[in-house]
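User: Please predict the structure of the protein below. I'd like the answer in structure-token form so I can feed it into my own downstream comparison script.

Assistant: Understood. Taking the following sequence of 357 residues as input:
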Amino acid sequence: MNYPFDVASKYMMRAIEIARLGMSRVAPNPMVGAVVVHQDKIIGEGFHQVYGGPHAEVNAIAAVKNRELLSDSTIYVTLEPCAHYGKTPPCAELIIKSQMPRVVVGIKDPFAKVKGRGIQMMKEAGVEVIESFLEDRCYELNRRFFTFHQYKRPYIILKWAQTLDGYMDIDRTQENYGQPTWITNELSKVAVHKTRIDEDAIMVGTQTAVKDNPSLTVREWTKGRDPLRVLLDLNARVPKEQKLFDGSIPTVIYTFVETPPVNNTEFVVLDKDLPLWSQLLEDLHRRDIQSLIVEGGPATLKSLIDQELWDEARVFLGHGFFQSGVKAPGFPGKMISRDYLDNSSLIVFRREEIKPL
């Protein structure tokens, strides 16, 4: 490479930065950014903007005004260029035709139709390929995509709110059902809805559905999609009058009880004799669901924690005390960030370090 490591890192970090602009618009494809550099100057950049649209490499090369400079340029791309015909032609083939002599790849694509083939195609055409450049950062960018392809399940995000003394709910009786327990504040509520637009699905269990009557939609953030609603209701105990049955958005309910589909709602009957979570996560994987938010309650959260079926926990910490009630789950995890939301905060934990297989 013609540039020192710190200079080259600057260009890959720029590619990562613009790749994030495709968040929530490109799934089930990954977020990808690309930067074309000529003599230490960016002459073109682009990112994958929408599913089915041109890939990052296409947009970056198209942004270069003087095409003659390509033959003496380097393209930095966060993910291995594709080598197959899908909704768009192979990006590896485009790079070869552009006569760029060098490609810097952040990380290999785990998708079965690529998986090293793009790199191989470019090398066989005489292109210098520098692999695994800032690999950990590029993996982090698409941790949902990599988890989906490597582990054949969605990236699982646990979410709950808890008080300063570690309670996530009061001991509610039948008279308290239908009204969620208020722990944080309005700004936290907006943050919850903002995070929902970035994920593919959102799930609650029977008790949460009955007690809180949630909609699980994006209402406090105007720009964004509603995730697929998922309900774990094994014994069909949630009344059909609850908001989850309103038909406003697609909803999948996992149960042991045979039930015909109704009102934009699909029932998936699980086998009692087979592992519950394996069946559920396999079905979500089949639906191309790359990320799943699990919003409780405590039994559902604990079940996933005990089986180490989680990747991230988002804990909204309020400013008050309950002194008694339903305890928030304990879990092993590493805190990676904390954002203050007036008198509350959002703390994000990871089960383990994000890294390629």
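That's the full token string. The CA atoms of residues 157 and 226 lie 16 Å apart.
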